[in-house]
């Protein structure tokens, strides 16, 4: 039986194959960290592989968080974190760290988000 092009099993690749066996990123990147493609990334990402090219395209002209990158590319968060860390190290992506938030501020933010979701 031949798989259809829409069959998600046809696109399955083991995560360690995407990251060449690495499970730890070169640097820790927060899930909410904001990333943008650099000028260098616009020029060189097409030579960096399909997944990195997709990430560079996604972040070109539109800031994305690590969580959004993982969701849009349908890659596991750990795989996305390793690829993004590589791209930051190579100068293909610019990393904009999110300001440190105290636990009290974080709880207030989460409560506001939850309240907004309930209103939807």
Question: Can you tell me about this structure?
Answer:
With 120 residues, the protein is mainly alpha-helical. It contains six helices and three strands. The longest helix has 17 residues. The model has no long low-confidence stretch (mean pLDDT 79). InterPro entries: DUF742. This is DUF742 domain-containing protein.
Kindly list the characteristics that best describe this protein.
single chain; 120 residues; mainly alpha; three-stranded antiparallel β-sheet; 6 helices; 3 strands; 48% helix; elongated
Summarize the structure.
By secondary structure, the protein is mainly α. The protein is built from six helices and three strands; from the N terminus they run αβααβααβα.
SS-based structural class? mainly alpha
Total helical elements: 6
Number of strands: 3
Strand content: 5-15%
Task: Tell me the distance between the termini.
Answer: 43 Å
Q: How would you sum up the major sheet? A: 3 strands, antiparallel
Gyration radius over CA: 17 Å
Q: For the largest beta sheet, what order do the strands appear in spatially?
A: 2-1-3
What's the pLDDT, averaged over the residues? 79
**Anisotropy-based shape:** elongated
The helix/strand order is HEHHEHHEH
- Helix content range of the residues, please? 40-55%
Q: State the low-pLDDT regions, or none.
A: none
